[in-house]
Design a protein that fits this description.
Elements: E1 4-7, H1 17-31, E2 36-41, H2 53-64, E3 73-74, H3 79-91, E4 95-98, H4 102-106, E5 141-144, E6 152-154, E7 158-160, H5 164-167, E8 171-174, H6 182-192, E9 197-201, H7 207-218, E10 224-228, E11 231-232, H8 248-253, H9 258-268, H10 280-283, E12 297-298, H11 301-305
Parallel strand pairs: 1-2, 2-3, 9-10, 11-12
Antiparallel strand pairs: 4-5, 5-8, 6-7
Helix pairs in contact: 1-9, 3-6, 6-7
Length: about 300
């Protein structure tokens, strides 16, 4: 079976070194096996999208040599398929309307990175059936009846098992303002594109059991997953403005060559002995899961400055 990987950037902010490292791993994992790569722009949160973000992120990928097969897919164009998936879950009573606080429901607005995970949902509205929605006068979201968290074999981490508490209990699949939450949207979209391999940051590892539950509930084939360590600042925290400017567009404006960025990222993954400049295509034959360090890759402003 041909491997189908994907790149799934969001146009809600600038792409930075951390994004580039994960995209590189995802692209190489597909290309090293002779596979295809799908580009999906996760633009479902239209109110959070930044002007010019889509051309900038496609420019970043192109400069890095991370190509894709076919035309880019806009997630927002797949809304009818998302709605059909929700209706199927409703018919089988696998979801229920939830009128809990806006703050609780809004935690599903985007990919739930580890530091943003809310406490486990206590099941306040779990007694409801799908049909109860017609009588509700308050805004409501739809929550999935999670049940037991499935274990999975991560391509990088190996056997991975989480508890229902790790997953946050019953999770939101549809938001109160009429659009799908992250978990449902990516399952439907990946299945529609025939994605067989998902490579992403390990801050999303708790999303995988949730998505596996949805694949099973919707009778869709699930891909293999790999969760790689993040790029962090000197303090060990996710890259942010406090760590200096690591935005790819800023690096290009400084005259930093994409090959220099790739050299640093490849060396951080153990694919090259030094951080010498290299192209993405030259890395295809060097890709290996077992050389990537288990710890996050810590950058410093000095390290970034040396790229120039």
């Amino acid at each position: 079976m041909t491997t189908v990987g994907r790149l799934a950037p969001s146009p809600t902010g600038a792409q930075h070194l951390g994004n580039a490292r994960t995209y590189l791993a995802a692209w190489l994992a597909a290309r090293a096996s002779g596979g295809r790569v799908v580009l999906r722009i996760e633009d479902i949160d239209v109110w959070r999208n930044k002007p010019d973000a889509i051309p900038q992120l496609t420019d970043d990928l192109t400069r890095l040599g991370l190509d894709w097969d076919g035309e880019p897919i806009l997630q927002s164009m797949n809304l009818p398929a998302h709605e059909a998936a929700l209706e199927k879950l409703q018919r089988h009573e696998l979801v229920y309307p939830c009128t809990c606080t806006r703050t609780d429901i809004e935690t599903a607005a985007a990919a739930p990175h580890a530091e943003h995970e809310a406490p486990p949902y206590p099941g306040t509205c779990a007694h409801r059936t799908a049909g109860d929605a017609v009588a509700l006068t308050k805004p409501y979201a739809w929550r999935f009846r999670a049940g037991e968290a499935p274990a999975f074999d991560d391509l990088f981490r190996g056997p991975t098992a989480l508890t229902l508490a790790d997953l946050g209990g019953d999770f939101v699949v549809w938001r109160s303002f009429g659009v799908p939450a992250y978990q449902l949207a990516v399952v439907v979209d990946d299945a529609a594109s025939g994605v067989t391999q998902v490579v992403r940051g390990d801050d999303l590892v708790t999303s995988t059991p949730r998505q596996l539950l949805l694949y099973q509930a919707l009778n869709l084939p699930a891909p293999r997953f790999a969760h790689v360590p993040l790029v962090v600042g000197p303090d060990g925290r996710r890259l942010a403005k406090r760590h200096g400017d690591t935005r790819l567009q800023s690096l290009w404006k400084q005259g930093i060559r994409p090959e220099a960025v790739l050299g640093l990222l490849a060396h951080s993954c153990g694919w090259t002995p030094t951080a010498e400049p290299i192209t993405a295509k030259e890395l295809i034959q060097r890709f290996r899961w077992d050389t990537i360090p288990k710890a996050p890759f810590a950058t410093t402003p000095e390290m970034v400055a040396r790229l120039g």
